[in-house]
Structure formats: structure tokens, C-alpha cells
Write a structure and sequence with these properties.
- The protein is mostly helical and 311 residues long.
- The protein has one domain: Na+/H+ antiporter like fold.
- The protein is 78% helix and 0% strand.
Length: 311
């Protein structure tokens, strides 16, 4: 298995930070409002990206079990921290913290690393892990975020209007009925993953351009960092060791699971917070801090965790 070096992270890191800088410039110089972009991402670009990835992946029961497992773990973590955060933070901040606790930048940041570290079969395993995290973001995670601003009924109604869930079901139905999506349609949707990454990271920059010194909350940022770089690596390592105690786990799956546990905070934290109007500035600052720390944290974590996992 390929070892990860700090230089491996610099390409994805600088690319993502360049997108953040573009968003900052666009907001500062062109006065672009990021809210319509967040809406576009959630209601159009994300569902089509999700549908294409699931269709190309060729879902099987074992792959979907990975998706279900990651969805379940993400949801449970978020539900626990939703209860805990309400005791320490205001409703909006606790909603953002709960959402962020269940997810990470598995797509924008993690996928380029997966392509370097894993063979094609391992990349497929990683992608179905990512699908579980993404499904959490736009169901349980979105509901918990909405609860920071809306009633339970209003929050559920917002989830029912999210097309990503229906895109997931449509992809599963097409696979189950052996309906082949025309190649022209798949090729036409090839632009959406890159667009999703570009606009998702630009929204962070747009939000940061509006942040004032009053929104710098060290306690909130520390909580986000502790969950992302403290709890999640332990969860990933614990899951791997637990599986290895009962099954022979392929090395590709081990690395895929560990990678899910060490990526920085998800850019979708800002996208969802922007859409719902719940402290997007604080979320953007926390995402930026964990992303800047990634080149130092991830190689060390992965090296130690892969050694403990016997790789």
C-alpha cells in the first residue's frame, strides 16, 4: 500500500484554497451573493452528482452495506453531539456543530487522496463510503441543522423537498431494474462533480469575506477541530480493528475507512448553513482552520493508523 507523504496533500490543498480565494474575490469585488449558489448546489448540482456516482459505481449489496454503515455512524455521532452541543452553545451554533460532527470533506479533499493511495477497487469502496456520508448530510444532518432555526415539522418538510434523497432512490431503482442510463446522459453529467467542488469551496471564501471579528469564536472552532481530528480518527481506527477481529478485511477497505476518518471538515457545513441561515461565518472559519491543518495532521494520522491496522 502506498505511503502518504505531506507533498501528496499539497496539490489538492492549494487547489481547494485557490477556489476559496476565488470565492472571496468574487464576493468582495463583484458583490456576488452566495445564498443562490448554495441553493443551486443543494437542489440541483448535488443530486445529479450523487446520481451519476451511484450509477457508475454499480451498486451491489456489499457496497450498499458500506453506504448504510457510514450513514448510520455519521447519524449517530451527529445525534449525540446535537444533544451535547445544545447545553454549551446557542441554537444556531449547536446546529452547525451537530451537522459538522457527522461529516467531513470526504469528496473535495478525500477523493484526490484516495486516487493516489488506492487501486481502482479501493477507490470504488471509498466512493460508497462517501455516498453514506453524503446521504447523512442531506437527511439527518440537514434536519439537525434546520432545527437550529425551524420547528420539527418545518425541518421535516425541508428534507422532503430535498431532491438528493430521490436521486439516490432513482439510482437504486435503475440498478435494481437493470435499466441502463444512456451514455450521453452520463457524459453530459460529467461536468457536475467538478462544478460541485468549485462552487462548494468558493462559498467558503464568499462567506469568509463577510465575517467580522465578532464571529471569531475560539470555543466553537476548538470543538469542531476536536471532533474532526480527535473523535473521527479514533472511530475509524476502532471500526477497522473491530472488523479485523472477526473478518479478513482487505487492505483497500482499511485505507478507505481510515481516510474517511482523517479528512478535514466538510465544505458542505458552510453550504447548508448558508441555505438555512445558521451561523455560516463561524462554520466557514472552522472549515478553513481544519483544511489548513490537513497537510500536517493527515500524513501523521494515516501513518500511525495504518501501522496499528497492520499495513
Amino acid at each position: 500500500m502506498t505511503a502518504i507523504e505531506p507533498d501528496t496533500l499539497m496539490g489538492p490543498l492549494w487547489t481547494l484554497l485557490a477556489f476559496v480565494a476565488l470565492g472571496w474575490l468574487a464576493s468582495r469585488r463583484l458583490a456576488i451573493d452566495p445564498r443562490p449558489i448554495a441553493t443551486l448546489l443543494i437542489y440541483l448540482i448535488a443530486p445529479l452528482t450523487f446520481f451519476r456516482a451511484l450509477t457508475l459505481g454499480g451498486p451491489t449489496p456489499s457496497y450498499l452495506l458500506l453506504t448504510l454503515a457510514l450513514f448510520t455512524v455519521s447519524s449517530l455521532v451527529a445525534l449525540v453531539f446535537h444533544r451535547l452541543a445544545r447545553q454549551c452553545f446557542a441554537p444556531e451554533e449547536s446546529a452547525v456543530l451537530a451537522f459538522s460532527s457527522g461529516t467531513g470533506n470526504t469528496g473535495y479533499f478525500g477523493l484526490p487522496l484516495a486516487l493516489v493511495l488506492l487501486p481502482p477497487q479501493g477507490v470504488t469502496l471509498y466512493l460508497f463510503c462517501v455516498l453514506g456520508v453524503t446521504l447523512y448530510e442531506f437527511t439527518v444532518g440537514f434536519y439537525l441543522s434546520a432545527r437550529g432555526q425551524f420547528s420539527a415539522r418545518q425541518s421535516l418538510m425541508k428534507i422532503l423537498r430535498l431532491p438528493l434523497v430521490y436521486a439516490f432512490l432513482a439510482a437504486l431503482m435503475a440498478s435494481g431494474l437493470e435499466l441502463e442510463v444512456p451514455a450521453a446522459v452520463i457524459d453530459g453529467m460529467a461536468v457536475f462533480p467538478a462544478t460541485y467542488t468549485l462552487l462548494g469551496m468558493m462559498i467558503i471564501g464568499m462567506t469568509l469575506s463577510r465575517v467580522t471579528i465578532r464571529e471569531v469564536d475560539g470555543r466553537f472552532i476548538a470543538a469542531c477541530v476536536a471532533i474532526r481530528y480527535g473523535l473521527w480518527p479514533l472511530l475509524a481506527l476502532g471500526a477497522v480493528v473491530g472488523l479485523q477481529a472477526f473478518f479478513e478485511v482487505p487492505a483497500e477497505l482499511v485505507v478507505a475507512l481510515l481516510l474517511v476518518g482523517v479528512v478535514p471538515m466538510a465544505a458542505n457545513v458552510v453550504v447548508v448553513a448558508m441555505e438555512l441561515g445558521i451561523a455560516p461565518g463561524k462554520g466557514a472559519l472552522a472549515v478553513l482552520v481544519t483544511t489548513l491543518a490537513a497537510p500536517l495532521v493527515i500524513p501523521f494520522y494515516l501513518g500511525v493508523m495504518m501501522h496499528l491496522a497492520g499495513l
